[in-house]
Amino acid sequence: MSSQPLKRALLSVSDKSGLLELAQVLLKYKVELISSGGTGEFLKTHGLPFTPVETITGNPEVFGGRMKTISFAIGSSLLYRREHPQDLQEASELGIKPIDLVVCHLYPFEKIASLNGDEETLIENIDIGGPTMLRAAAKNFAHVAVCPDPSFYPELIQEIEQGAGHTQLEFRKKFSLATFRHCALYDALITRVLEERWETDDFSLMVSSAKGTSLRYGENPQQKAFCAPTSLSTSSLARSTPLQGKELSYNNLWDADSSWRALKDLHHSRQTDKYPSAVCIVKHANPCGLSLAATQAEALHLAWACDPVSSFGSIVSFNQEVTAEAAEILSQSFVELVLAPSFSKESLQIFQKKKNLRLMIGDLAQVKNEWTLRSIDGGVLLQTEDGTPLEELTWVSQKKSDISNALVRFGLVAVKHLRSNGIALVQESSKGLQLVGSGMGNPNRLVSISQAYEKAREIGISDFSDVALFSDAFFPFEDNILKAHDYGIQTFIQPGGSIKDNEVIMCVDRLNLKMATTQTRHFRH
Fold first, then answer.
1. Options 7, 284, 483, 500, the catalytic residue
2. Which residues have C-beta within 8 Å of that of residue 147, sequence separation ≥ 6?
């Protein structure tokens, strides 16, 4: 039956917003309201007639509310097929009367989890009866309408009013699908939160019950895109709302994430307060500027100087509140987005002159046990995020370097965030720590070394004797060393682990160079 009259509706909601208007509309069309616990009290307070759910179930609400709607009577009222002869006969014999609409808003598990509530409170907010009713109603969409969230009330009310107390099949199908999706997200959220609380190594669906946000477009204008949060943190990048600027695109968020991850690693890898200010500039998911300095303005100058050409139209991240001085510097150039823990009032006033510039707030806290995923044909690849590199070096060459620990950690962060095969050239000066050249995304390491060298030459580096070369993976042959040596590079930091390690080290010693290994690879495909 396409058009289905509403005669009885079951209302059981934790969120009472919008409920009064919906109940009044249902009563307008003489729909009997069946309600449980707090929902019934709400209707009673507003003087609206309703049938207590225990009248239908024949049992009282018990166990602190854990048992109230789960029953043979409620389940049967929702599930039996209205045009099926045997179902009709059995319903008549058992005294089962149909319920034509279920309005149920589940316990606020996500809210409790986001508040880091105690475990007992968290578990009590896992809804059992609600999903049971929702799924039953959604399954029997041919005859039953279902509404899983107050955000759907306006559309539900419109359907009821237009149908003069009836619902149409297409509407019920639409809400059935929305309900199954809602329940799936709810269950996935519970699983994910408990995995994190109980620190398991298993993986669940990486979603929360929050709806995805539509984006301007995907990697290209002809592609659709949206952002679906996986974290409960309201300060996560996926949930962050721009303070100003144009609508976000897929590429904006992808590059912002690349910049923010590198920035956070840099922030947390600092050993002293000598260089408190960190800046990361990203273009097409690769750092083209990275620095640590005593002041924010100096760090920004150093990062921008790494690759002024690529920094045009980039994403810029700061690990400190953005100052007016930094805002003035950025306002002289074109950037897509600025990301920081906060912005001073003065900087916001300066940025207001660039209406399209996006400003976003980021959280510097490291995320524990974070999973990353990528789609492949017919599935997804999942892995834990590569942690902040803090390896200790083992000098494998006869000659040792006096490279500072600060530059070592800086270089490890820099090369970790370059797309493989990644080569980072870093340098320490009186001004701070700076990425001076980078090569990435090439099919072999030799090309990346040449690319990094040419980039460094472009910004005026002529003496490479105090420039350290970091590689994201081992050197498979000595040709990498020979090429870098031709460029004047003398210090090499690499993971090691090649079957040719001894030959590579012998080449380093023969040329009187310096090499250390970390034993940890940082591929980033």
1. 284
2. 101, 102, 103, 104, 153, 156, 175, 179
